[in-house]
Amino acid sequence: MSTAPVLPETAAVYWRPRLDPARLRRRELGWTLSTFAHTIPFLAVAALMLYLEPLSFPVAAIAIVHAWGIPALYANRGACVVRPRPRADDGSERTALGLLGDLLGHEARELHARTGLALERGGLGVWLVGEAGALLVRPGGRRVDCWCVKVDADLPSADRTAHLLLALREDEAGFATVANLAFSGGTWRLRHRLPKPMRPALAAARAIS
Amino acid sequence: MDQTGHTTLAEWTPGDAAAVEAAAIAFREELDRGLFAVVSTGEGHAEQVRELPEGAELVILRRPIAGG
Hints:
The structure holds two protein chains of two kinds.
Chain A: H1 21-52, H2 57-80, H3 90-103, H4 106-115, E1 118-121, E2 126-129, E3 133-137, E4 143-151, H5 157-170, H6 172-178, E5 180-186, H7 187-191, H8 199-208
Chain B: H1 17-32, E1 36-40, E2 46-49, E3 60-62, E4 65-67
Antiparallel strand pairs in B: 1-2, 1-3
């Protein structure tokens, strides 16, 4: 038996440096700075308008809406990575759910049944794996990273989740290297964008992160 | 794992040489098709294998993942 310490799919993204905790923190800082860059100018314009001419408050209000809306759009993009896709026929979904259930512990299986997300503890934080992406709740639970990653095949939903879960278990850093970071920011910001049935999974991940 | 949920490709017991051989051939064919073989190695851990691990309880063949 031979082992591969690195996820083989990382070879397909050879130009990306392998993700490690320090590199991930830098990327998260980049997202934070980018959020400020989108927000501060609009807030400054709003404040300046109100200072110069209080009657310009409608324009100031539009600027504030922009300051709020742009990060919200990014958060929405992050939430999209775990939104449910169309289901295969019931029989194959049931079969796939059985296999996925075998891979998960009792609590994670129950959480997946309720929310459609598979909870997995990792070295970088707590993962919530969906069928076309994963959320990484960072230690402390205040920040979440949304990763877009998929299996290119026509498979039942639970099978797609199982593929991602196995790859994550093989090599967490490699998994995050292959995946595309769709959003990184406050958990509160993402929570409002998640479908309601999935929110308990985010709460559960925050509770143990 | 496939469109039907999953399909059992082969079953074997370590002492049954013929079954192991048949499983190894099926295993190799799937790897040649580009699939990866994974065995669970405890809670939250999995390991990729390139040869059929005779003693493994379950070997899962998964497809490659890619950034979306």
